[in-house]
Amino acid sequence: MSRTEHFPGPVSPDAPTAIASPLLTQRWLDLAFVHWAVDPSHVAGLLPAGTVPDVLHGTTYVGLVAFRMDRVGWFRLPGIPYFGAFPETNVRLYSVDADGRRGVVFRSMDAARLLPVVMGRAGFRLPYLWSRMSVRTDGDTVVYTSSRRWPGPRGVGGRIAVRKGERIEEPSELEHFLTARWGMHNAFPGGVAYLPNDHPRWPLYRAELVECREGLIAAAGLPAPQGEPVSVLYSPGVPVRLGRPARSPGAAEI
């Protein structure tokens, strides 16, 4: 068996390891999780070497996740008031590495503050892009808008709106699979790295997608979504701690 064929660990609604000394702290607020099913063979070539698509019953997913980032801070320092608070919208895929760690791979990360974009691109090699963005709440409906500024293509973005429904007391297998992600995979010099996170269990609500005009998924190199999404969820958010990236358990940190 090759290393990329190792079995992934179980999907758990709780972080497998608490991060005692976080590299970054932040809050993720007013999240919309919108997902479409996709054939794993269509996205395998978009993942970093050393990872393969994570699948549930033979299917993987592309996610459009819009939210507000808040109180971003280094180590245990208080969050930065202005530069640490901004809307963000991510296009992400689902991955598993040779050590069985499930994660996400970001294909694009649009954010409304230039400084975090530059730092994310330079320091972590993440696909951050600077966009004009807003998150507005009208009763039970949350509206997310974006229009890309740099590095382009300029104007790519769109508008999505979700209407919050009832609280989910016991998330389904698919809902856990799409949201209980305790790290991300990203390519660094010398190989793929895994950046862990931990946070309380997601408070999840069923949601209705009342509007979806977006070009972010196609701009991220993926086929444009066809048909209705298979899952639409809303969460008011959680506080998050991010650990230091490492290539494998026990390996030297990057």
UniProtKB/TrEMBL annotation:
InterPro entries: ADC_dom_sf, DUF2071. Pfam families: DUF2071 (PF09844). This is DUF2071 domain-containing protein. It comes from Streptomyces yaizuensis.
